[in-house]
Amino acid sequence: MLLDAFLTEYDESLGNELNIDPLGLQVIWSGFGQQIFQNRISSISNDIRNFTLNLFNHFLIKSLVEDDSIALGIGLRKIYNGKHDLKFKHACLVYLENLNVYSVIAHENTAGLETTGVLGISKARRGWFDSTGNPSLTFSHVPEAQVLVRQTLLGVSGRYKTPLVEMGFFDRHYRYNLPTATLLWKDVDALISNTPTLFRLYNLLRPHLKDLLASSRSQPKTDFQDIPATLPKAMVEAFASSAAVGARTCDFWLSITGLDRGAPGALYNVLSSPKHGDGSAANVFEEAMKQPLAKDAQRKLAHVRLLEPLLSEVDLLFHLMLAEKSQPVRRVWQRWKALGRNTSTLATCAAAINADTSMTTVLSTTGQARLQSLLNVAGQGGADAQMDTLLSYHALIMESRGQSPWVTRADGNQLKIHVRPRSEPTPAERPLGGWVHQYYIPQFRHLLAGLHGVAA
Q1: Residue whose C-alpha is closest to residue 267's, from 294, 243, 289
Q2: What is the pLDDT of residue 144?
Q3: Per DSSP, what are the bridge partners of residue 138?
Q4: What's the rounded mean pLDDT across residues 351-356?
Q5: Angle at 129 between CA 123 and CA 135, to 5 degrees
Q6: Could you give the CA distance from residue 226 to residue 290 in angstroms, rounded to a whole number?
Q7: 91: Cβ contacts below 8 Å, ≥ 6 apart
Q8: Mode of pairing for the β-strands spanning 414-417 and 407-409
């Protein structure tokens, strides 16, 4: 039931933090991370092949929607309120994603084809074998037509929806005729027209879908083996791997996303450098700050470097509270000191944030309230007060999720934890000033590997 609640409408006070983020830090660090990346990438949308597949699918659907010569058959007209109906577009997306994953399975021994990263392939493979290599593809938005459970949320179109919305291709209801979108779609048209693999696939898929939509059935079905062999083969050739797709589309995506300019551009340059590309997130940000940047871009990078020390140290203090099933408060303080920290550690981190008033305008209401609570923790006069305030904050976070706290103060001086104890880190594992959160650097690195044509 918790999963169902999470997967419907996004609630940033919950996020995907239910069992892994006991201090609710994700909404804070991700807010500052997305100030840089503008939702172009995220933890679930960072593969250039899937980016391109989703955009290609939408371009194809847009062409069908806007072509008045293509009409829905009598059966589909009973289900959908025309081609602009959101459910109709969902049906198109599900069908195209299913066709793609089955095409990959049918050609998985093809040289250069990368099956890793193809969403839904594990479940699709079961359907493939159950049908002895001839699964039925249903054109419908209903769950029964979907290879993945909640496919419109968890499939390619769902995971890569927000980036394309943020870029201006369409809105949340997949309306393609936005004022911001006209020039963008012209660029996509040029990309597909000038990329032979995409152009060939488009010219095979469009008539296939046109015929499918003319069916008199309310849920047209097609057996995979009845689809002309040239179509699955063309689909695999167009989207063989992230490296292959990136090599063909790099200039387009950099132009559209702006990830090689401004604050993300500084990170892009560092990650593209042989000298610093493999460095930690902290080192990548440090090197990025050395580049000539406009004040706004520099400020976005600086915010992260000011924020993360506080988040990391608060995370460490809470981690130490979880080191034993039961321990006196003074033992946490001893562990804290053994790692080179003291009563002023949190306060020093907080002072840098408090000194930069521009940081108060970045986060949502939820994120800003949580950051302010952590600053309040850091502002307490002693270690005992800091721990007490942090425990109270943690309890409120867990209560907001309908969950119990991981750790409580059993009496005046004893902590009791209600989860598995955490191993105590060494000074080398948690150096003073070290970072816990990565601010989408691993995801950006993965995206760039594809863009630069680097095989996984």
Answers
A1: 289
A2: 96
A3: 221
A4: 97
A5: 80
A6: 58
A7: 80, 139, 140, 141, 145
A8: antiparallel
The token pair that represents 274 in the structure block: 């042989």
The full DSSP string for 167-208 is HTS--TT-----TTTHHHHHHHHHHHHH-HHHHHHHHHHHHH
* Nearest residue to 186 via CA among 239, 237, 252: 252
Full DSSP string of 276-322: TTTS-HHHHHHHHTTS---HHHHHHHHHHHHHHHHHHHHHHHHHHHT
Within a 10 A sphere around the Cβ of 444, how many other Cβ atoms? 24
Q: Can you give the pLDDT at residue 260?
A: 97
What is the distance between the terminal CA atoms of the chain, rounded to a whole angstrom? 36
Element at 221 (helix H, strand E): strand 221-223
- Position of tokens 């057996």? 223
| Residue found under tokens 């959160």 | 437
* Chain CA centroid to CA 152, Å: 15
Distances (CA, A) of 246 to 249, 376, 450: 5, 46, 5
Q: What DSSP line would sit under 382-413, residue for residue?
A: SHHHHHHHHHHHHHHHHHHTT---SEEE-SSS
Residue that the structure tokens 């769902």 belong to = 158
pLDDT, tens digit (0-9, with 9 covering 90-100), for 367-392: 999 999 999 999 998 899 999 999 99
φ, ψ for residue 416 (rounded to 5)? -130, 130
Is residue 453 within 8 A of residue 247, CB to CB? The reply is yes
DSSP letter, residue 424:
P
| pLDDT number for residue 412 | 77
- Supply 337's token pair: 């000191």
pTM value?
Answer: 0.92
